[in-house]
Amino acid sequence: MKPIAICYNKKIFDHYSSWSPRFIEYCEKNDIPYEVVNCYKFNIISQLDKYSALIWNFSNYVISDIMEAQNIIKIAESKGLKTFPSTDGNFHFDDKIAEMYAFQAVKAPIPKSWVFYLEKECIYWLKNRAEYPIVAKLRCGSGSNNVKIIHNAEEGIKYAKRMFTKGFDPTPSLAYKAYSKLQSSRNLKTIINRVKKIPQFLESRRHASMMPIEKGYCYFQEFVPNAGYDLKVVVINDKLTFCARNVRKNDFRASGGGDCYYDKSLITDEIIDIAFKAAKDLKMNCVGFDFVVDERNNKPKIIEMCYGFDYEVQRDLGGYFDRDHNWHNGAVYVPDEIVRAIVDEVNK
Q1: 253 near 147, Cβ under 8 Å?
Q2: Residues 6+ apart with CB under 8 A from 25
Q3: Residue 261 CB: number of other CB atoms within 10 A?
Q4: What is the pTM for the complete model shown?
Q5: Which of 36, 33, 34, 32 minimizes the C-alpha distance to 8?
Q6: What average pLDDT score do residues 310-332 get?
Q7: Which residues in 105-139 are b (16+ Cβ under 10 Å) and which e?
Q8: Of 142, 170, 196, 204, which Cα lies nearest the Cα of 12?
Q9: What confidence tens digit (pLDDT) does each residue in 171-201 have?
Q10: What is the SS3 assignment for 137?
């Protein structure tokens, strides 16, 4: 077996949430041949023939990742390499509009969604058709960054006029991040741990500041009233894990707050079936879905998705559901599952 290429370059960006160290650890423990490669090198394409697979946990914080990771992975696939994430699993990465189209294509249950590329059409809809409140989102961003609630036509028109002129900087706001973490911190230990991560957030923000201004479109979602939490539901091969996340005080958003807990009663058979089916239809062997349960009818809806997420939070659940809704004890290490699946594919 040719070695697996694991893209990892600490000099570019070494975020605490990177999966690459765990990929490497798993390969070493299991005698799986691998090499750490620098996918930012100008000659990376000529090096790909040496490998059986390419694994790249690329980030929405790094502009070079956003610019080139999907292209390089696509080329690797064309040369016969197995990849993670695959093109099917990454083409909508950090693009909520692309996610919307993908969900619609597989008929996954999502909130009503609208996207406009002409200011006149957008403002007409906001004045005459929209039912408020609605949620405005930029294409990019994570952890509830760049998500706003619009209460009425006046707010909507003001937002639209800006999106069709100078636009919005998608860089994560330091003030909002601090507010978000403070609102969801339940004890002093949690606050201290979050303070320790400030330097890495500032480094993330420095990279994100190079991203272009978002403008020239408006994307809106139906506001879905929830019961004070959302669910990060992860499908990895034939296993399903989750965490519940409390919304912040005086807010409707939960993602990025970090106030997580585990209550298996929240994961209904319907949610398990929806998640496994959506993952299969989207051709993703690893995906994290953001679910909310609509208080109006108790129906689950998928808000967003991403191939990447905090795998340690999922590990701390201490078990998983299978496709038949059965519970199994035993922590799931998502990076390990990924490498194991890649090796199985290569050895077929």
Answers
A1: yes
A2: none
A3: 11
A4: 0.88
A5: 36
A6: 97
A7: eeebebbebbbbeebeebbebbeeebeeebbbbbb
A8: 204
A9: 765 544 444 444 444 555 555 565 555 555 5
A10: strand
